[in-house]
Amino acid sequence: MSGSKVPITRVREEVCAILAASTGETKRKFVETVELQIGLKNYDPQRDKRFSGTIKLPYIPRPRLSVCILGDAHDCDRAKEQEMPFRSAEDLKKLNKNKKLIKKLAASFDAFLASETMIKQIPRLLGPGLHKAGKFPTPISRNDDLNVRADEIRATIKFQLKKVLCLAVAIGNVSMTEDELVSNIMLAINFLVSLLKKNWQNVKSLFIKSTMGKPHRLL
Prior knowledge:
Helix content is 37%, strand content 24%. It is of the alpha/beta class.
């Protein structure tokens, strides 16, 4: 999929402008996220198939994303050793399928990993709560490095068309280098275009924007 519609020189130029603004007089007391904002055209969300796709970016855009392990005894011990948040089957049983408590658990973390043995138990223990929140756990095996798997989630972004013709995804943050941001942006744009029915003909506009900064147009 060619990214020729958006020259890499243009992306680099706008990334430099965002980074310069974020470290200048307007520097914030927190690390701003950089978002890719997409406007679509010639798409009818009611009639056309709504696309959905995930891609792992080369550089982690959201290092602070909180990931909780829903583990068997072995994985809970590993999570404890690595100072990662975890919940055991017993902890989940204590929620007693209370919708408010399950909602609170879902809201407390950005994502979940679960031991293979736990995945099958989750609907029984928690009902559809995590699934409804869009946070159903990703399975992990005994040989997986928990930190590596958590970082995979932090590096993965999702494009999903809902009822409106605009999308926004976090593709980086202002503590990243110019090259890291450019790599993430180019990969994200080209992947999104590959999901669209008519590829570039469905793209109306592309912007990148830091949390508190102004939008920078790419297309």
